[in-house]
Amino acid sequence: MKNGKLLCDGREVLNLCSNNYLGISDDLDPLSVANASEMVGATASRLIVGNHPSFGKLEQTIAELKGAEAALVFSTGYMANIGVIPAISGSGDIVYSDRLNHASIIDGIRLSGAKLVRYRHNNPDDLKRLLEKETSYRRKLIVTESLFSMDGDIAPLERIVDLKNTYGATLMVDEAHSSGVYGEYGAGLVNELQLVDDVEVQMGTFSKAYGCFGAYVAGDQRLIDYLVNKARSFIYTTGLPPIINALNTQAVEIAKKDNWRRIQLHENALFFRGQLRKSNLDVGQSQSQIVPLMVGDDEKSMVISQRLFDNGIAAVAIRPPTVPKNSSRLRFSLMATHDRSDLERAVEIIAETVGDV
Ligand SMILES: *Cc1c(COP(=O)(O)O)cnc(C)c1O
User: Fold this and answer.
1) Using one digit for the tens of pLDDT, what is the confidence trace for 171-222?
2) In terms of C-beta density within 10 A (0-12 exposed, 13-18 middle, 19 or more buried), how is residue 212 classed?
3) Of 208, 216, 210, which Cα lies nearest the Cα of 253?
4) Pocket of ligand 1, candidates 78, 85, 206: which has the most ligand atoms within 8 Å of its Cβ, to mutate?
5) Nearest-CA neighbor of 334 among 196, 171, 147?
6) CA 13, 340, 295, 328 torsion: positive or negative?
7) Residue 184 CB burial class (10 angstroms; 0-12, 13-18, ≥19)
């Protein structure tokens, strides 16, 4: 529904758990795609017969938006991460990963055979200590999310870039939750901070703020050519159906054009965080549209989630192993299309519920 609501068994609930941050999925229009009916089926691996022109169009749109030479579309964000990391690092190499990075990043590193070193979350001093300590590895890769999916806080990208330059490492940034949401035209945080030339691998998805499906990697032409030949999750799988490419392109164009969506989303997030804090609720380090409500106890977070749902609010409880032990939480996500009055009411209900449990 258009105002950030869901219909569950005929009952309207406020959707505070959507990744469709900009409300774009409500406005995608498959019927406006030229030759839509011919673009519905899947094809094959893009290296066999599956390289439909819709891929090139989407990749060019992304490369231009990101300020990169080239881009490559993957079928999902999970597949992008498990394809790219093993393509650019292997045994004898080392990968430095933020402790709270997404599971797909961890799986990519494990698949690569490189040594995995986890640094403290958003802590460049700890990263520096580890970069200094390990000297016997051939290539160094640093991987971080730009906006963290479970905490809603933002990586200190400028400091990480300084470190990667000092220690001769490569940097990969996963913008799954910031693509479309930050930067002019929604180009993401790397672009907003003018770090494009220092981030070798810009990765992101179409499945979050773009409200559609799939993922991309952007970087220089050499990287993209290399991935076409090396990334196994690109080579050995069926490409996205062309209609999805067309809708992803549509979504990126909508996000570019509609600055109001970003403005409203950030205003809604600021309001919601502020109101929860005023009610003495712990929203951790959140500085974005992702707002955790720290609970700690697993069981308690489940009870709160259920009671909120009974009171017309959909929000998920996130528990280990998705988050570290004893840090269970509710994870709220805001949308550009939420009404202020609905958010006000939601905060009241949340504060009451937490007080009761
Ligand atoms: C969602 C997500 C992914 C995976 O994307 P999918 O397209 O859902 O496979 C990767 N990285 C991060 C940080 C994510 O939040």
Assistant:
1) 999 999 999 999 999 999 999 999 999 999 999 999 999 999 999 999 999 9
2) buried
3) 210
4) 78
5) 147
6) positive
7) exposed
